[in-house]
């Protein structure tokens, strides 16, 4: 899970499954603990299987007491990566780069329905994009077989 600043007032949250590369995306006006908790709720609602752990960078929004309490409430393990180790968060970093190149380059950032357009692009990425064909072998049931501890990057 990570946050990327697109421009002032637009922060792109990303969660991506380590095995299937299934991802959840949403934008917020600020990078706050409240928005991080809301995004976590979205992730839990949209993922098709139980999340056992979350890996993040060391952003303050993920270390806040409220966010940590929410993780404990859902029995989700928290795994922060070491400082200056962005290579450990590579999947989510590459996903954000793809979003910048494929979605935000053509999106109207002033559009009030930006999150609706982002949800459409997320659906395309997860179910229709060419890489989906290779990810079909990494379905949720296959992901559970591969790894008993799915970690979100």
TrEMBL record:
SUPFAM superfamilies with a match to the protein in the record: Ribonuclease H-like
GO BP annotations, alphabetical order: DNA integration
Domain Integrase catalytic positions: 1-148
Pfam families: rve (PF00665)
Annotated GO MF terms: nucleic acid binding
Protein name (database record): DDE-type integrase/transposase/recombinase
Organism encoding this protein: Spirosoma arboris
């Amino acid at each position: 899970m990570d946050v990327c600043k697109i421009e002032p007032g637009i922060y792109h949250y990303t969660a991506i499954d380590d095995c299937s590369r299934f991802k959840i995306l949403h934008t917020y006006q600020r990078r706050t603990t409240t928005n991080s908790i809301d995004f976590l709720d979205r992730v839990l609602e949209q993922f098709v299987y139980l999340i056992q752990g979350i890996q993040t960078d060391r952003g303050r929004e993920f270390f806040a007491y409220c966010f940590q309490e929410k993780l404990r409430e859902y029995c989700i393990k928290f795994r922060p990566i070491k400082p200056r180790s962005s290579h450990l968060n590579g999947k989510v970093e590459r996903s954000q780069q793809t979003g910048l190149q494929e979605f935000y380059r053509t999106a109207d950032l002033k559009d009030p329905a930006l999150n609706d357009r982002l949800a459409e692009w997320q659906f395309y990425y997860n179910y229709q994009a060419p890489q989906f064909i290779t990810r079909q072998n990494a379905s949720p049931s296959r992901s559970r077989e591969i790894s008993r501890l799915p970690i979100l990057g």
